[in-house]
């Protein structure tokens, strides 16, 4: 079960009671670094009262870690000196159903004096969510999780093939059962395009919850895979050929109970606020690619005509547009209308993704931006002249290009703050150099087991 109670000692007591009753003995306290890797410290349940107040130490040097556990060399970050505190968010303390005896909580990072740490990714999300709330706005977001399993032939067969459920059905059922027991509401699960590739989607939530859920879903898939003798990979391109694993993000903007993606006079029924928000995303998309497609491997996936959204454009139900607009079924459109950013993958830190997306959207609203005309075809098949006239271009085709856009983004620097932004840039630049001389196959091999 998940403990979602008010803060304070009472909630610590309740969490202790609930977790002991569920047989929990160890708590995994995790956060996601600038390389998109979840890092962990674990603490016995008996220590929870102390942990909830004083946290557990972890070095700030992890801000400079790269995907291969080497460290970016910077003047301002890293080194062996200093310590931070990881504090659990008890609202998300969850028994890990696929790992009996274990619970998990996402951690916020604080200085030893108890000040919020400027490099903390969850605090970043809280800041932009507060900025949105200051304008009377809130968001509902959700990640689609795609992954591939090996070794062996589980889920061999045609894309989305019914036949693939014959051997993978029990595995998928175990994943859904574990997530349900952990309070995660599943919308869909199915075999994806490639043999051994699957996808799960979960209900839209508040932005911080959506990012936490993304972490929990991936961990749960890993644990259930392990129990089935499999290894799950969330890498952008897990194999040497074929389609990659996306980390698409769905989002809708709300004012109270009103979905601003629906019932307006703008394109496809958007309200002016909804349109301006999405126009802000489109404007910042090349820079956002540096956040949401953060690995050299990301650009092996982000290819035309593979539903990865390699072009900077939007379109109604267009799976080749980086920004796909979804109006939803007629009877449910007021609730369901939303936009999907298809270009991102799961090498990305989900907290950085949700925070950056909101910041870019709010900036669009601040500037009262309008969307260009929608694009209703696969841009890869369009006449280049037509694309140019419509202002449609390929998103960055490599990390170096994405980092150049990211470095120049005033919107994202301002939203993240210098500390977080510069650490992220340092990691992105160092990963770019780390992989600069590697072939496609070497890049795939070096990232397959890291995400
Ligand atoms: N696997 C595709 C990707 O890399 C996405 C397929 C889909 O649209 O579900 O993003
Ligand atoms: Mg998919």
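Q: What amino acid sequence fits the structure above?
A:
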């Amino acid at each position: 079960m998940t403990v979602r109670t008010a803060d304070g000692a009472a909630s610590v007591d309740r969490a202790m009671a609930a977790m002991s009753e569920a047989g929990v003995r160890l708590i995994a306290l995790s956060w996601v670094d600038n390389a998109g890797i979840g890092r962990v410290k674990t603490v016995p349940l008996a220590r929870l009262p102390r942990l909830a107040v004083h946290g557990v130490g972890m070095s700030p040097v992890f801000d400079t870690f790269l995907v291969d556990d080497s460290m970016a060399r910077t003047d301002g970050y890293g080194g062996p000196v200093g310590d931070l505190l990881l504090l659990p968010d008890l609202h998300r303390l969850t028994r890990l159903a696929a790992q009996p005896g274990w619970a998990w909580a996402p951690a916020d990072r604080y200085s030893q004096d108890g000040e919020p740490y400027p490099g903390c990714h969850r605090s970043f999300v809280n800041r932009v969510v507060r900025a949105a709330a200051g304008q009377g706005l809130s968001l509902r977001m959700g990640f689609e999780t795609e992954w591939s399993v090996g070794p062996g032939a589980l889920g061999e067969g045609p894309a989305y093939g019914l036949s693939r459920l014959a051997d993978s059905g029990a595995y998928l059922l175990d994943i859904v059962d574990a997530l349900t027991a952990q309070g995660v509401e599943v919308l869909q699960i199915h075999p994806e395009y490639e043999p051994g590739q699957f996808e799960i989607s979960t209900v839209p939530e508040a932005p911080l919850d959506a990012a936490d859920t993304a972490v929990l879903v991936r961990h749960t898939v890993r644990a259930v895979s392990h129990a089935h003798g499999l290894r799950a990979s969330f890498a952008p391109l897990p194999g040497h050929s074929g389609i990659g694993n996306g980390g698409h993000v769905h989002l809708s903007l709300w004012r109270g109970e009103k979905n601003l993606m629906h019932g307006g006079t703008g394109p496809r029924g958007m309200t002016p606020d909804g349109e301006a928000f999405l126009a802000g995303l489109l404007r910042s998309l090349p820079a956002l690619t540096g956040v949401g497609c953060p690995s050299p491997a990301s650009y092996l996936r982000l290819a035309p005509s593979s539903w990865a959204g390699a072009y900077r454009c939007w379109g109604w139900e267009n799976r080749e547009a980086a920004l796909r607009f979804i109006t939803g079924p007629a009877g449910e459109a007021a609730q369901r209308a939303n936009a999907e950013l298809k270009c991102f993958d799961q090498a990305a830190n989900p907290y950085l993704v949700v925070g950056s997306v909101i910041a870019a959207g709010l900036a669009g609203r601040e500037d009262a931006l309008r969307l260009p005309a929608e694009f209703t075809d696969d841009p890869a098949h369009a006449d280049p002249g037509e694309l140019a006239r419509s202002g449609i271009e390929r998103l960055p085709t490599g990390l170096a290009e994405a980092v150049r856009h990211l470095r120049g983004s005033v919107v994202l620097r301002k939203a993240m703050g210098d500390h977080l932004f510069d650490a992220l840039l340092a990691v992105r630049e160092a990963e770019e150099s780390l992989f600069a001389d590697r072939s496609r196959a070497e890049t795939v091999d070096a990232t397959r087991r890291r995400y």
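Q: And what stands out in the fold?
A: The two ends are 26 Å apart (CA to CA).
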